[in-house]
Specification:
2 domains
Length: 187
């Protein structure tokens, strides 16, 4: 974690206004409200609109859950987002990823563990992170595995989690109970 204290403190649910409840009140995981949502409660207008997009990525995307988590974990790793990595480490395990798969996300596209489409997902995520562009070669190869709609969801998933990682890192969102910080992400 880059910050050991939040810059934008999470708002206790007991203090939420009607607008805050409307914006993030239903966003729960395991029956509890995560620090990301308690932090976003500081700006209910933004949170309400962002949640529409986030819900598409997490629940309505055309790519598989495993593919989604590979992209999210890779972006979280590249952005050095301890919160994002920790949260999606847990989610990845629920989406057909093993502990070894998650460790291989750190290695990147060169890991021999990946199927061809997964290697390409990591390569595309790296390119989007580094250059905000997927090369023609990678795009052509991805197109052999994914439809146009899926390709669009891949780009928007990477973009969403680049944005989220920037926000989490900058706001100093602290880990939720049960999350552990990967040693390699300690600043």
């Amino acid at each position: 974690m880059r910050l050991d204290q939040p810059r934008v403190p999470p708002v206790p649910e007991s203090e939420w206004s009607a607008a805050q409840k409307e914006a993030v009140g239903k966003a729960k995981m395991g029956g509890r409200t995560l620090n990301i949502f308690r932090t976003l409660a500081n700006h209910p207008g933004l949170a309400k609109r962002w949640m529409v997009f986030a819900n598409h990525i997490m629940g309505k995307s055309s790519i598989s859950l495993r593919d989604r988590e590979i992209v999210i974990l890779r972006m979280g790793w590249l952005c050095k987002s301890g919160y994002e990595w920790g949260q999606h480490h847990i989610i990845g395990l629920e989406c057909d990823m093993s502990e070894d798969d998650i460790e291989q996300v750190k290695v990147g596209a060169d890991s021999p563990a990946w199927a061809e489409n997964e290697r390409l997902l990591i390569e595309a995520t790296d390119q989007l992170h580094d250059d905000a562009f997927i090369s023609d070669e990678t795009w052509a190869q991805l197109s052999q595995h994914y439809s146009t709609e899926q390709l669009m969801d891949i780009v928007f998933t990477a973009g969403q989690y680049n944005l989220v990682s920037m926000a989490l890192n900058t706001f100093g969102v602290q880990l939720d109970e049960g999350m552990t910080l990967d040693e390699d992400l300690r600043a």
